[in-house]
Design goal:
Blueprint: E1 4-9, H1 13-34, H2 44-63, E2 65-70, E3 74-80, E4 84-88, E5 92-99, H3 102-106, E6 110-114, E7 117-121, E8 126-132, E9 137-141, H4 145-154
Parallel strand pairs: 7-9
Antiparallel strand pairs: 1-2, 2-3, 3-4, 5-8, 6-7, 8-9
Helix pairs in contact: 1-2
């Protein structure tokens, strides 16, 4: 069977809007300070450091992505730029796709911890729920619900 592969990014309209507001809130005062006649050279770094931090944070958010792969060995995931991890079928007792509430169950999006275990999610409210034989629960957000269900069903004999 062909492996399931999915890459998700924080590309929602409201994330883009927040980033635009942050850029404007940083750029407008910077523009005003640099255009003042009283601007002195020693003011350069104290003014520029917050801008560099803001640009770094925006680039970091832009780079973040959730990569999920399901194959004959198990479920492999990475929340880039962090390391890649794998859950092998022989360690999994249950695996299924379900609807969930990111805010109520996990307190939002990203790498989250909640009463229902850990979640790696970027957007939406559908996820691949994994319950390990140790009892640990991990949820991976997905935008490809039916494709994920089909692949999980094809590997159903590899776990339980």
């Amino acid at each position: 069977m062909k492996p399931f592969k999915e890459t998700q990014r924080f590309d929602q309209w409201w994330v883009k809007l927040i980033l635009i507001i942050v850029i404007a809130a940083t750029a407008i005062p910077l523009y005003m300070v640099f255009n003042e006649a009283a601007f002195r050279e020693e003011m350069f770094w104290p003014v520029l450091i917050p801008v560099l931090i803001t640009v770094g944070a925006i680039l970091f958010i832009y780079m973040l992505r959730l990569e999920t792969t399901i194959d004959a060995k198990g479920i492999h995931y990475r929340f880039f730029p962090f390391g890649k991890k794998s859950l092998f079928w022989h360690d999994i007792s249950e695996c299924y796709v379900r609807a969930y509430s990111p805010l109520k169950e996990y307190g939002g999006w990203g790498i989250r911890w909640g009463f229902n275990g850990r979640a790696y999610n970027v957007k939406g409210n559908k996820g691949i729920q994994v319950i390990l034989k140790s009892g640990k629960k991990i949820l991976f957000g997905t935008q490809k619900e039916s494709e994920a269900k089909n692949v999980i069903l094809s590997y159903k004999d590899n776990f339980s």
